[in-house]
């Protein structure tokens, strides 16, 4: 996770959910210099997630052993529900343990990000970047909290509605719904895990983007942009008044918000940006386990929710319950995209550097600069700059098609199991 002034809101909220058991050490002027584990926060994080996990399984056991179960009416629904709950529990535990045991990676990640920010501050206005990143983090956090709170509220209302229908057969049906409340609380931890990863990935992608803008400034064409004369229209006279516009200045100030400093040599700039690219590429590698846990939970939730939606559409045909399942399907798709899109954006920006360096190799005429560019080129070719789930697969938009195929396959298998359950129930003993 990234811990900085621009991400401190998300960091402190994640501490409430037990995902960041760290205290921040600052200088007298307020600058962050180090991060340490807090024994109190570690105990709080472990106690929170394991208490919620234990209460969740207690609620499942109460529902299974009741006279009229609320959620687990068939053998297939029992397997799917327990798998659904177990995925959330395991992902939350993984997030908590990653926070406790990942102090070394957090320190190294933030050290490299700070180093990159110090060099990029020579080219990009620091205040503008920080404000923009802070706004994005708060907006993403608010949107996720709003969506998950609304979905959980509607889901609880629907299950209480179903419990009222079977109250004659099971007078304690409301307690079955109440037993799933710890499970709903775990969803907040899971979504906060997504937000932490998404913000860190977008922060790395934002630095890659500013690095690419700095490289664009190295093109000779930026220094030889012609001045353009635009004639104003005068309705009272045939005389045209020329207006000089410096196109290069407009591109630099409006499009990029750049503050170019010619005191640094081109060779020095290339070498510094190569160091930044290598550091940011290391940051990408540190998210392997988190990505594996998040993507695994997304896949299993998409399969389980799609199954329950199809069963409801062809079974009881309760319109309200079907809409709630459709809403949960949308939320799991949103979770999936919240993971995929930041990875894809960062991968695109990091790979765009190769195209820019290749263009610089063709256009640059300075012998000393060409040597630095060629070294940067070799570094780019020899390294991999993409998010991966522990090296198993590259995380970008192409994985969406793989997920669609996997979901369709597992749905067919689950439907076949359901038909077997239905047929066995109709068979006379």
TrEMBL record:
GO biological process entries: chemosensory behavior; male courtship behavior; sensory perception of taste; signal transduction
Q: Does the keyword Membrane apply?
A: yes
- What are the boundaries of the signal sequence? none
Listed transmembrane segments: 39-60, 80-106, 138-160, 180-202, 275-308, 320-338
Could you list the residue ranges forming a coiled coil in this record? Answer: none
**Where is this gene product found?**
Cell membrane
Q: What is the top-level taxon of the source organism?
A: Eukaryota
Query: What are the protein's UniProt keywords?
Result: Cell membrane, Membrane, Receptor, Transducer, Transmembrane, Transmembrane helix
Q: How does it sit in the membrane?
A: Multi-pass membrane protein
InterPro entries in the record: 7TM_chemorcpt
Listed GO CC annotations: axon; dendrite; neuronal cell body; plasma membrane
* UniProt similarity note: Belongs to the insect chemoreceptor superfamily. Gustatory receptor (GR) family.
Q: According to its UniProt entry, what is the function of this protein?
A: Gustatory receptor which mediates acceptance or avoidance behavior, depending on its substrates.
User: What's the protein name?
Assistant: Gustatory receptor
């Amino acid at each position: 996770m990234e811990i900085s002034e621009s991400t401190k809101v998300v960091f402190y909220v994640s501490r409430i959910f037990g995902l960041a058991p760290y205290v921040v050490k600052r200088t007298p002027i307020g600058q962050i210099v180090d991060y340490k584990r807090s024994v109190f926060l570690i105990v709080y994080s472990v106690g929170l997630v394991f208490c919620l996990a234990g209460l969740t399984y207690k609620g499942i056991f109460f529902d299974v052993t009741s006279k009229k179960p609320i959620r687990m009416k068939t053998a297939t629904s029992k397997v799917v529900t327990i798998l659904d709950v177990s995925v959330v529990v395991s992902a939350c535990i993984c997030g908590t343990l990653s926070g406790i045991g990942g102090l070394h990676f957090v320190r190294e990640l933030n050290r490299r990000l700070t180093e990159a920010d110090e060099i990029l501050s020579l080219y990009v206005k620091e205040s503008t970047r920080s404000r923009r990143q802070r706004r994005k983090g708060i907006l993403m956090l608010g949107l996720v909290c709003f969506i998950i709170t609304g979905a959980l509220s509607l889901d609880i209302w629907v299950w209480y509605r179903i419990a009222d229908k079977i109250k004659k057969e099971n007078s304690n049906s409301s307690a079955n719904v109440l037993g799933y409340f710890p499970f709903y609380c775990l969803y907040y931890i899971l979504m906060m895990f997504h937000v932490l990863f998404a913000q860190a990935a977008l922060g790395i992608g934002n630095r890659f983007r500013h690095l690419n803008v700095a490289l664009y400034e190295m093109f000779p064409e930026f220094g030889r942009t012609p001045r353009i004369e635009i004639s104003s229209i005068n309705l009272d006279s045939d005389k045209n008044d020329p207006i000089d516009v410096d196109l290069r200045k407009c591109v630099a100030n409006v499009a990029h918000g750049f503050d170019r400093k010619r005191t640094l040599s081109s060779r020095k700039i290339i070498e510094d940006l190569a160091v930044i690219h290598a550091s940011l590429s290391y940051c990408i590698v540190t998210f392997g386990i988190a990505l594996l846990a998040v993507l695994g939970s997304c896949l299993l939730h998409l399969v389980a929710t799609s199954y329950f939606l199809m069963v409801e559409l062809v079974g009881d045909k309760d319109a309200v319950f079907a809409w709630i399942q459709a809403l949960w399907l949308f939320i799991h798709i949103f979770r999936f995209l919240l993971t995929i899109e930041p990875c894809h954006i960062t991968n695109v920006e990091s790979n765009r550097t190769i195209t820019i360096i290749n263009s610089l190799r063709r256009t640059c005429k300075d012998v000393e600069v060409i040597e630095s560019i060629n070294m940067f080129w070799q570094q780019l070719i020899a390294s991999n700059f993409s998010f991966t789930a522990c090296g198993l697969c590259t995380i970008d938009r192409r994985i969406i098609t793989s997920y669609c195929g996997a979901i369709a396959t597992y749905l067919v298998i689950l439907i076949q199991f359901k038909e077997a359950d239905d047929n066995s129930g109709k068979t006379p003993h």
